[in-house]
Amino acid sequence: MSVTDCVVVLTARGITQILREGGSQAWRLDPSHAGKYEYAVCVQNTKPSWGTPEAKHHHAFLIGRISGVSRSPESPETRWILNFDSYAEIDIPNQWDGNRNPVSYGSLKDIGIDISQLDFKPLQKVFPLEPEEHVEVGCDGVGIRPLSIQEAKSGLAMKFGVSEEDIQITING
Asked: pTM of the predicted model, to two decimals?
């Protein structure tokens, strides 16, 4: 796999929502496979009645540098988020081939993207707590938000490569 390989996603979410959520979600994918890629290219889908599209239909509008793959808060059992640590805005038309699967793997060169020509910006992560309430995360990229025991077990199991059943959490106080 070369540095020019990328994950390509067809998303109904716009750039504002993707940046607010810290990446592109809620995908059904193999996290160990997708996590090997350095970049994700987001292609806009304006057809669904849900979502917050902001770019033109089938335009590649964002490239994110993948910092990890984690469980999507929307469906943690089955869906994943491609977390970004930085991003660049792009506008490249006709970037979806009609594939029914909204996740594919491709080449930045085939899309017409030259990484050296892009101005990547660091992503300021914001974790949603309640619908209208957010906590800003500092420049160190570490954020703390309330977690359920199951979310903590899921994250720790993924981090340490063990099953969730092998994680025991004790709360004192």
From this structure: 0.72
What letter represents residue 140's amino acid? D
Using alpha carbons, select from 20, 90, 88, 87 the residue that is nearest to residue 59. Answer: 90
Q: In 3D, which of 29, 35, 55 has the Cα closest to residue 43?
A: 55
What's the start-to-end Cα distance of the chain, in Å? 48
Question: What are the φ and ψ backbone dihedral angles of 99, each rounded to 5 degrees?
Answer: -55, 135
Separation between Cα atoms, residue 127 and residue 136, nearest integer Å:
7
CA distance readout (Å), 109 to 57, 98, 106, 112, 152: 21, 19, 9, 5, 39
CB atoms within 10 A of CB 102: 16
Residues in the chain: 173
DSSP 115-162: GGG---EE---EEEEETTEEEE--TT--------HHHHHHHHHHHHT-
Other beta carbons within 10 Å of 72: 20
Joined tokens for residue 12: 């109904």
Residues 131-172 pLDDT 10s: 443 334 333 344 455 677 877 777 787 777 777 788 888 888
Region for residue 98 given its phi and psi (left: phi exceeds 0; alpha: psi -120 to 50; beta: otherwise): left
